[in-house]
């Protein structure tokens, strides 16, 4: 992960050197070479080759036979978890663990991914696409001037994705600019702080802004520790830390809301339970003597994932 930020500086310098000095290894040093170069390095070096560096060996593989063998013997290929610590923004998770610990995290997260989840995401995707078009219409006075012009689709497409994740996964409906809650669409009790256009409940960012900051700038969390981000004298890094602390607090508040709802026998049907929250909490509640007493370890695993 350390190489990723360094590559933005070093790769342009190395590419400016004479090709006879850097060919053929320069192309595979780029962190995203597989997207830029595609199959070209394999046509030069073969279906499988090693990239040797002071930090270790990297196997690039396009051999169907080798891929098949690796897939059949996946337990023989242990994940180098020491390289994944940069992804532990909230703690150990299904990506950064291995063995029995990984199985515990997988048990927490796997329940969210099924055909019902796909149907929920599809339904919400259609709804958000329609709302995006309505947002364009508002910016163009409803097309009254004879057309609707959209200069750049990307920001709105990113917003659409953000809204889909929020509503489908967390049960939080986010509003577009200029949009108000329609009839029968009031925020559920306790969720007002998440749908508000202004920060509430001691937060310095809205739920939408904090989630957007984490999705957009998460790479900074891998480059610097949270303590360093807090102390660096740069507006961008401090905003990343602010987004992290706000989003982390929002996640804990969401879990508390869901614990209360499930304890009262209420299970949401219009969300796909992003990380298996409902199924895990229900089983924990059933096994608990007290209806609202849930062991902290599974709850922390939900938050981490």
Would you write up a description of this structure?
The protein has a two-stranded antiparallel ribbon. The protein is 54% helix and 4% strand. A hairpin with a 2-residue loop joins strand 1 (48-53) and strand 2. The protein contains 15 helices and 2 strands. The protein starts with a helix and ends with a helix. Residues 275-295 have low confidence and may be disordered. The protein is mostly helical and 305 residues long.
Fill in the keyword field for this structure.
305 residues; mainly alpha; two-stranded antiparallel sheet; 15 helices; 54% helix; 4% strand
User: So what's the overall shape?
Assistant: globular
**Strand order, largest beta sheet:** 1-2
Summed up, the helix count is 15
Strand percent estimate: under 5%
Helical content, roughly? Answer: 40-55%
Quick structural overview:
The chain has 305 residues and is mainly alpha-helical. The chain is 54% helix and 4% strand.
Topology:
Elements: H1 3-15, H2 19-22, H3 33-36, H4 40-45, E1 48-53, E2 56-61, H5 64-72, H6 99-109, H7 115-139, H8 154-170, H9 192-195, H10 207-217, H11 219-223, H12 226-231, H13 235-263, H14 277-287, H15 296-304
Antiparallel strand pairs: 1-2
């Amino acid at each position: 992960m350390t190489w990723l930020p360094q590559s933005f500086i070093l790769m342009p310098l190395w590419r400016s050197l004479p090709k006879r000095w850097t060919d053929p290894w320069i192309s595979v040093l780029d962190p995203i070479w597989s997207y830029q170069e595609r199959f070209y390095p394999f046509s030069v070096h073969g279906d499988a080759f090693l990239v040797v560096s002071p930090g270790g060996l990297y196997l690039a593989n396009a051999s169907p036979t080798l891929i098949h063998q690796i897939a059949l013997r996946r337990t023989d290929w242990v994940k180098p978890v020491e390289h994944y610590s940069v992804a532990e923004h909230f703690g150990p998770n299904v990506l950064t663990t291995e063995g029995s610990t990984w199985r515990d995290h997988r048990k927490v997260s796997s329940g969210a991914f099924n055909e019902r989840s796909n149907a929920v995401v599809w339904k919400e995707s259609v709804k958000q696409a329609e709302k995006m078009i309505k947002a364009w219409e508002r910016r163009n006075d409803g097309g009254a001037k004879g057309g609707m012009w959209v200069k750049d689709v990307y920001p709105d497409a990113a917003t659409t994705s953000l809204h889909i994740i929020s509503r489908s996964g967390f049960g939080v409906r986010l509003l577009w600019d200029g949009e108000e809650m329609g009839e029968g669409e009031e925020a559920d009790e306790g969720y007002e702080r998440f749908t508000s256009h202004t920060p509430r409940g001691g937060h310095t960012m809205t739920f939408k802004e904090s989630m957007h900051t984490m999705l957009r700038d998460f790479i900074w969390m891998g480059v610097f520790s949270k303590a360093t981000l807090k102390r660096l004298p740069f507006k961008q890094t401090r905003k990343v830390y602010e987004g992290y602390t706000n989003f982390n607090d929002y996640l804990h508040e969401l879990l508390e809301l869901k614990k209360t709802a499930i304890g009262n026998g209420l299970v949401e049907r219009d969300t796909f339970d992003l990380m298996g929250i409902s199924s895990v909490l229900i089983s924990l509640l059933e096994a608990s003597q007290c209806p609202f007493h849930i062991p902290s370890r599974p709850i922390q695993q939900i938050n981490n994932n």
